[in-house]
Amino acid sequence: MQSYTIGQAARLLGVSSDTARRWADAGRMATHRDESGRRLIAGQDLAAFSVELAQSGGTAEEETSVTSVRNAFPGIVTAIKLGDVAAQVEIQAGPHRLVSLLTREAVDEMGLEVGMEATARVKSTNVHVDRF
After folding, report:
1. Which of 16, 73, 99, 122 is deepest in the core (most CB within 10 A)?
2. Could you tell me the residue ranges of all domains in the chain?
3. Cβ contact 20:10 at 8 Å
4. How far apart are CA 16 and CA 82, in angstroms?
5. Pure H helices in the chain
6. What is the per-residue burial (b if ≥16 Cβ within 10 Å, else e) of 64-75?
7. DSSP-assigned states of every residue in 41-52
8. What are 25-28's contacts with CB under 8 Å, separation 24+?
9. How far apart are CA 91 and CA 50, in angstroms?
10. Burial bucket for residue 131 (CB in 10 Å: 0-12, 13-18, 19+)
11. 74-94: per-residue pLDDT in tens?
């Protein structure tokens, strides 16, 4: 499973690294250390926290991003629902929850999993997913 540094988690949550560090220090985000001593957050834990944060409206100390480059929303995959032919992928990008309907084959080819970093690109009413 993919893990994220505090800086990567902060970017995906749309807050500063200092805010993410404070949340980790306060126990709001579960972290672990890698062999070099860096503090990491498991992808599934970050996905769950991002959904919780968006549903609660965040906190007063939260610093949100106010710009989007060409309708690209970098975030974290929070849910995948697979059917026989179609799939639904949910991405939490800061305070934004985006849902994309795509083929199951596309999800399989991209190797998408909950907790993985991805970018939702929005054009009109279509949401496309890019994997990093």
Report:
1. 73
2. 3-56, 72-131
3. yes
4. 34
5. 6-13, 17-25, 43-56, 104-110
6. eeeeeeeeebbb
7. EEHHHHHHHHHH
8. none
9. 10
10. middle
11. 899 999 999 999 999 999 998
Q: Parallel, antiparallel, or unpaired: how do β-strands 72-82 and 39-42 relate?
A: unpaired
Distance in angstroms between the alpha carbons of the first and the last residue of the chain: 15
- Would you give the distance in Å from CA 76 to the centre of its chain? 2
Tokens representing 95 are: 């305070």
Q: What is the mean pLDDT of residues 11-35?
A: 89
DSSP bridge pairs for 131: 118
Residue 67 CA to residue 85 CA, distance in Å, equals 35
Residue 39 is encoded by which pair of tokens? Answer: 């503090």
The CATH number given to 72-131 is 2.40.50.100
The token pair that represents 23 in the structure block: 């949340």
Does domain 3-56 bear CATH number 1.10.1660.10? yes
Q: What are phi and psi of 128, to 5 degrees?
A: -105, 150
Contact assessment for residue 29 and residue 49, using Cβ atoms and an 8 Å cutoff: yes
pLDDT at residue 63 in the model: 45
In this prediction, residue 72 carries a pLDDT of 81
